[in-house]
Known about the structure:
The complex is a heterotrimer. Chain A is an alpha/beta fold. Chain A has helices spanning 42-49, 72-78, 95-100, 111-116, 119-138, 154-166, 184-199, 211-217, 235-240, 242-253; strands at 4-13, 16-26, 31-35, 57-62, 65-66, 80-82, 172-176, 203-207, 220-225, 228-233. Chain A has 2 domains: 1-79 and 170-254, 3-Layer(aba) Sandwich (Rossmann fold), CATH 3.40.50; 93-167, no CATH class. In chain A, the strands form 2 sheets. Chain A has a 6-stranded mixed sheet with strand order 6-7-8-3-9-10, with helices on both faces. In chain A, strands 2-1-4-5 form a 4-stranded antiparallel sheet, with helices on one face.
Amino acid sequence: MPLLQVENLTKTFGGLTAVADVSFTMQRGEILGLIGPNGAGKTTVFNLITGIYRPDRGRIEFNGRNIVGLKPHSIARLGIARTFQTLRLFPTMTVLENVMSGQHCRTKAGVVASLLRTTAQCAEEEKTVAVADRCLDLVRLTEVRNELAENLPYGRQRLLEIARALATAPQLLILDEPASGLNEGESLELRMLIEQIRQSGVTILLIEHDMKVVMGVSDRVIVLENGSVICAGTPAAVQSDQRVIEAYLGKEED
Amino acid sequence: MQEFLQQLVNGLTMGSVYALVALGYTMVYGILKLINFAHGELFMLGGFFGLTWLTASAFSGLLKSPLLGLLVLFLLVMAMVAVIGVLLDRVAYKPLRRSPRLTAVVSALGASIFLQNAVMLVFGSGYLVFPDVARDIYWMVGGVKITLMRVIIFLVAVCFMVGLYLLVQKTQLGAAMRAASLDHDTSRLMGIDVDKIIMLVFVIGPALGAAAGLMVGLYYRQINFAMGWTYGIRAFTAAIMGGIGNIPGAMIGGLLLGIIETLGAGYISATWKDAISFAILIFILIWRPTGLLGERVADKV
Amino acid sequence: MKERLRNIRNRHHWWPLVLLGAGWFCVPLFANSYWTDVANFFGIYMLLGLSLNIIVGYAGMFNLGHAAFYAVGAYTTAIINTRFGIPLLVLMPIAALTAAGFAALITRPVLHLRGDYLCIVTIGFGEIVRIALINNPFGLTGGPNGVLGIDRPALFGFTFYQPGHFFYLIWVIVILVMFGMRRLENSRLGRAWNYVREDELAAEAMGIDATNMKLLAFILGAGLAGIAGTLYAGKMTVIAPESFGFWESVVMFAIVVLGGPGSIPGVVVGTFGMFVLPEIFRGFSSARMLVFGAAMMLMMIFRPQGLWPSQRVLRVRQAEGLESQGSAAGRPA
């Protein structure tokens, strides 16, 4: 059974068709790149999968379960975590607190437990901090754990978003342009980080404009144009596809 | 049917007053994303300034020609309240442009309390009576009593609203206002003097509110320092009903609220009328979370 | 691991607080009954401020109709007590539950509204409740005159009737609530409220049910306001709609914002500013409210973050200060 199966996904805004009949599947453990020119509907696909928009038509199955119509928080709880293209951290909270948010849906202390500080609640809190620290360690942000998120430099904020998403213990991690705004060195580190995350057993779906990153890490690549899939295959196959070169790569290399 | 029509006429009169006041809320909100809780007090000041001029001996000569007199009266009162509106912005809101929104709300509430009590100290806490201006002139149209004052109120309100609509939609200044309400920084880059636009909003909004306050005084012939709150909250309700920040929304919301209120008071219960208005507002918002004409603000992801 | 935990919970020296508390509890021994009563209402308003702080401070929602929940608590207590003679302290949890249930019922359909729309809706709820109380539905609320002859609270045969008695009853509850708030603030729920306040969509994407967290904030806040309502009813023995108008909601809102949203010490100083100071300046008589309104504006202009902001806000301020000096490093955690 594939981890994620998307069938005939369609979404229109007003008269504009943002996503038209998009279908693809993802196997456990793979890295799938989603590319396409600006406005091709990539982020909309992400927003449909994570429940921020509701598709007009189509099915999204995660682990064999239809997740269309579920709220974003339920989808996150099922094991899909994401980052945002425009950073959406909790700006006036510390780096550590930001990452701790991921464990919220994996813990369950209620009002009474929190008031009485029961042993179970204390254990949960310790686990939350431990998981958060592990994720911060992975993206090498441990030293700034007590800084405020808004005071980090841009590249580190991107990493923080990844750490925060990882803290939800996801099966599928969705990264929306993680390399945008990163310098050469940082994007190289990012590629290594993505590989490392896959190694730990997380499946990754990735939107990226940086061709080095997306072609370097992806097992397969899907190309969207005007909301529809125009090509899918290995990075090598996609790069040599005539339609893709015309629609996208050609323009880029002008 | 006759009674229904009469209620409708009353509702439209009341509604046009609410709409004028609602415009002040909605314009300030549109440009500053701030609820100007002191706007009701500016409305109230319109009534008090109007009464002061009307009873001043120097003015009595002008009243011999009522039309000219009223015109001068309106202009004077509107100008005075506009000055106070600009001052209000300078003192209470301008220092807080970059502060959290909760802060500005409390400052607005403080300004409202301040103005209300200032008026109470100067004019006393009782009701003040307006002189009778053209109150007994009326026509019967199909059994419905239409007084001259109602016609004046409705026409003045409509003129102001049409004027404002044309200003905002058809002139370059209006285009600058619309741009500034979308994004201050980008507007500045495009050469728009945003501070001037904000000042303009604090001239127009309070001036319209003052006109409404003066008309309420002329019509009901009594005013009180606390009237700003009752009318203010209803006008704010109207602005939200239509979709706050949206100028036609404020007009429609105001007229609708006036009608709902008079019909509610007439056919359901007078003592529950405010509760009915609020309940209808809440139902409208459950149905359309940003009001009747408000844009559906989708979170940009 | 223990150290890590301590790192996220703010360390504090407790003894000055304990000393201050002990000193405060001696007040009724020295103060006359007028000032003891001022201290009593100070306590009741602090409860209200703490309860609204959950909604406005932690979860970041506008609520300018909090007096509605206070009223539901007070009237529940008053009506059941005068009709069935059930003692007040037994009614306290019932009042809390009724207010919380009422909040759940009315706020559930409007939780999705954005800031200012929620603001007018809460004003609307407040006004609807007040109008309902005046109109005496089913002969329950006694109309404009309210409900008379409410019992004093009693515990094991001891009746609280003097101001000094009430002082201890009210302030024991206030201290307990402050203690509980502090724990809540540093729990997963407290953090979740903050996440929702900072960025609702991001919080949802992290698996936090934002609607549920907002509802919980309203339920807890209303429940606590209900308890304050019981105390008020027991203290006054007469309650009337005018004590639960828009003005009360404004005072509660200003307590939270003036002190610093999300800050427990902020509620203490905010209540002091909004309630005790006007009491002290009663001598100004008619100009009192004028000064009061001006003070509200001035405080916001000169202390926009509040008189005693939450530690988080302080950290932000510190960071901004350091940054402007050109060194972001070496900041105290």
